[in-house]
Amino acid sequence: NILPKMKHFLWRTCKEFLAVNARLKSMKIREDARCSVCNAGDETLRHVFFECCQAKSMWAASDFKDIMTNIPAGPAIKMLQWVMEKIGPEMMENFTCIAWAIWTWRNKKTLGGEETNLQVLVQAFLKMLKDHQHYASRVLEDSAFKGLPSLDKWYPPPPGWLKINTDAATLRDVGVGLGWVARDHHGKIVEMGVKRTKVSWGAELAEVAAARVAIIHASKRGWSHVILESDAMGFIARLQSGSRGEAYIDVLLDDIRSLVPCFRSLMSSHVKRMGNTVAHLVARLSPLDGLDQIWSASFPSSIMLLADLDCQ
Predict the structure, then answer these.
(1) Are strands 162-171 and 175-183 parallel, antiparallel or unpaired?
(2) What are the structural domains, with CATH classification, of the chain?
(3) Mean pLDDT of 137-149
């Protein structure tokens, strides 16, 4: 039960299709097989994942440190089979996730010149895997929502539009975190914000409140073409149906609808959880003043990493 991108990475690793320097030299593409990161040995798959300095430090701080020195030499698929026999299929999912993060980190450093914190990247990948496994196990049983179109992943808006993804988080001893992130047609973050409120709300009410905060901000900023996107299927279904009521959640929905004239175009869409990971993490950020915070630059590195993954 892993992400599709992880499956593709694992398949390429087992087939030894990853473009390490040793393979590129054997194909007469490169003259030097040495590691592009540490320059201390030939850049084989074994070196990349288990012997390079940053990789060794990462594994030493993980739950897999005890098996690192015993991984046998040989083809990648044999090494991975040995690891799975030692740790089991469930732990193998986390092991693969860390290896995927190491590979992504190397590419960012060697190909993109980015100095990314490997530990932060690993934690972001593990969090993404955990969320995927949690939400993949949930089955939507309400037949009223089965006809609602759902996106499997995050897609950028058309040129000239902004897409605002929203999410809410229930935080122990804190209340509720309401997060949103606005991105352009390149997938780049334009602005993002988080608001904390000391209330005890259910999940759907909190999701609607997060969207309301985002739309109020968008109207104040004068954004004219906006797509509001959430992973809360019930909320999007109610918003699009135009249903009315007297509950507090209906008041918040009416607030959102009342702001429609502030925009030239305002649309809404439902995306599955894996397409909403950036807003999911934003909702859990701690505002500097403990109440609310808006970023228009200097976005947290963990958020930028997840946003980049959406565009890959």
Answers:
(1) antiparallel
(2) 4-136 (no CATH), 151-310 (3.30.420.10)
(3) 44
